[in-house]
Specification:
The complex is a heterodimer of chains A (311) and B (265).
Chain A (H helix, E strand, L loop, with lengths): L7 H16 L8 H27 L3 E2 L4 E2 L6 H8 L1 H34 L3 H17 L1 H12 L4 H8 L11 H25 L3 H9 L4 H12 L1 H16 L3 H6 L7 H10 L4 H26 L1 H4 L6
Antiparallel strand pairs in A: 1-2
Chain B lengths: L3 H29 L16 H8 L1 H34 L5 H8 L1 H4 L2 H14 L7 H23 L4 H9 L4 H30 L2 H6 L7 H9 L5 H24 L10
The chains are: A mainly alpha (311), B mainly alpha (265).
Chain lengths: 311, 265
């Protein structure tokens, strides 16, 4: 009598099923969803742990004599931060820079997204998408390096100006350079958030407005823009948050003289080594960012934004 | 429909965007093959000597290797975690689903400088700083929503009856998961993992916070060098990033199609 053996795959699968039944019996299946989401909750928990560490640190002032954080807790760091003219100036610069960058980004992103959605040729659309994704995937450092080559004192623009006899201009390490760098950084985010909103507007509504006698400008102003408003507000708030909290652009294109909030926080940790004050500043920035996001969630609901926020 | 004037208006703005988006890439590519010593305009002839130079430079090669390790760790950590979470969010009826989504979006809502410093404190407490795995794990944390989002958007497309049918035909829970659920979410898993890898490869701020002089990754290495003097060998290194980005876009386009990002939900 020959002994029949099931194929290995089957036996393996049966073993796996038995192991699953042993480890997670059928009666627990109500909680299977929770089991699957638990690792993600733990991983994001690291971030929450970090915020808690910062909250603890922000309540301890730095003892200038021993350079150790104090044992007793107080709100002194927050008072220092809120009472400092330097930080208010940095904060004002960040807000102004972020607002300008957001306005310029939206002004460029809207026509780009519109062309992307309405262009008839598939090849053109793909080319526009590749142009959009390439800088997004290259990273901020390499992009900033490109701008240093183009705009630097001995850079391409100044060399070209020199050829026609114009003295070199200082194009970098000033406020406009940072805003310009932010626009370049934010443009892909804004277009990728606007494009789905514009896809949702049928081309026929524009045709209808036109056939009723509206000029093209009026069609855009009174039909397309209002219908795209959720997308515009979403894109605007996301770009605003990213610009407000950016570190790399002010650091590289601002050359140390155009610090934003993130740079000030970094300096507190790595130059002054005052972790308490740095933590207090960082938590206030987290609060400001969360307030903006809460606004988005309030306007659109968690479901619509969920998992697509930065896309 | 549109007249020539309108097309001109739109396309001139689009061309400004194209110029702003592409100028750094083009210039870096050009600068990397210059035969001169400094970045100059007009370029001084063609040579590959800077590529030779970076191939010899040990610190750059090591930094590149570290970036690859960080990106691999990040993808390996995030892949199972994010895939399971994405499936759970879209296929199971969890209580407090909205609160869970808000919680899982924390990595996006907390500014990068805040999450970076928080993670730095946590890993510092655990004596993890100075090795590479914390950087990879940190990148997994801050970019996790990308993966969860792309998996859950493919998982919602799967008809639950297919899973019931598999169970009806005698498949156990593991078998149903491996042969029905997992293949259905594969496009989302691929898109998400590709994003995780490329974003971890490029991650600058979190790397800057979590690395020290012995463990710098390539973006931090470039950042440190830029601040001293700008030579074309950095351009040659940057081309490495451009090539990787190009390859990722090509892969993304072949596997799922770039047009997926234009769809309205």
């Amino acid at each position: 009598m020959s002994s029949f053996r099931y194929p290995l795959r089957w036996r393996l699968m049966d073993a796996l099923e038995r192991a699953a039944d042993l480890l997670w019996p059928e009666r627990l299946s109500r909680f299977t969803g929770w089991l699957m989401i638990a690792p993600a909750l733990l991983l994001v928990g690291l971030l929450v742990l970090g915020l808690a560490e910062m909250a603890d640190g922000s309540l301890r002032t730095l003892d200038r004599a021993t350079f150790l954080p104090s044992e007793e807790l107080s709100l002194a760091n927050y008072e220092t931060a809120l009472g400092s003219a330097t930080y208010w100036r940095v904060f004002g610069r960040s807000i102004l820079g972020a607002t300008l960058a957001t306005a310029l980004t939206l002004a460029l992103a809207f026509p780009y997204a519109y062309a992307l959605v309405r262009v008839p040729g598939a090849v053109t659309r793909k080319a526009l998408l590749v142009v959009l994704f390439l800088p997004f995937f290259i990273g901020q450092v390499v992009r900033a390096y490109g701008w240093l080559i183009i705009l630097g004192n001995g850079g391409m623009v100044n060399e070209a100006l020199g050829l026609v006899g114009i003295a070199p201009q200082r194009l970098l390490f000033n406020f406009p350079a940072v805003v310009f760098g932010l626009v370049q950084y934010l443009l892909p985010f804004a277009v990728l958030m606007l494009a789905p909103a514009l896809t949702a507007i049928p081309a026929e509504t524009e045709t209808a407005a036109r056939s009723l006698g509206a000029s093209w400008v009026r069609t855009i102003w009174h039909v397309v823009l209002p219908m795209a408003r959720p997308g515009l507000i979403g894109a605007g708030l996301v770009t605003m948050t990213l610009a407000l909290t950016d570190f790399a652009t002010p650091a590289m294109l601002g050359g140390g003289s155009q610090d934003f909030i993130a740079n000030a926080i970094y300096d507190q940790f790595f130059r002054t080594a005052d972790q308490g004050l740095g933590s207090a500043l960082a938590l206030m920035l987290v609060a400001a960012g969360s307030a903006i996001v809460a606004l988005v969630l309030g306007l659109f609901g968690a479901g619509t934004l969920a998992m697509g926020a930065r896309r | 429909m549109t007249t020539a004037g309108q097309r001109l208006a739109i396309w001139s703005l689009v061309w400004i965007s194209i110029l702003i988006l592409s100028a750094p890439t083009v210039v870096v590519l050009g600068a990397s093959v210059t035969s001169g010593n400094m970045i100059a305009f007009p370029p001084e002839g063609f040579s590959l000597k800077w590529y030779q130079k970076i191939a010899m430079a040990r610190d750059l090669r090591q930094a590149f290797g570290r970036s690859l390790v960080v990106a691999t760790v990040c993808t390996l950590v995030a892949l199972p975690v994010g895939t399971l979470a994405g499936i759970a969010l879209s296929r199971y009826r969890l209580r407090f689903a909205n609160a869970l989504q808000v919680y899982l979006l924390l990595p996006f809502t907390v500014p990068l400088i805040g999450s970076g410093i928080g993670l730095m404190l946590v890993f510092g407490e655990w004596r993890g700083l100075g090795s590479l795995w914390p950087v990879g794990v940190a990148c997994a944390v801050i970019n996790l929503p990308f993966l969860v989002w792309s998996v859950s958007s493919s998982a919602t497309l799967l008809d639950p009856d297919l899973e019931h049918a598999a169970a009806n035909c005698g498949a156990g829970r593991v078998q149903t998961f491996l042969h029905v659920t997992l293949p259905a979410v594969m496009p989302g898993v691929i898109t998400g993992s590709l994003l995780m890898f490329i974003l971890a490869m490029n991650e600058f701020l979190v790397s800057l916070l979590l690395t020290d002089a012995r463990t710098v990754t390539l973006p931090v290495q470039i950042y440190n060098s830029i601040r001293s003097i700008i030579t074309p060998d950095l351009a040659a290194v940057s081309v490495v990033f451009i090539v990787i980005a190009g390859a990722a876009i090509a892969a993304l386009d072949r596997l799922v199609g770039l047009e997926i990002f234009l769809k309205s939900k």
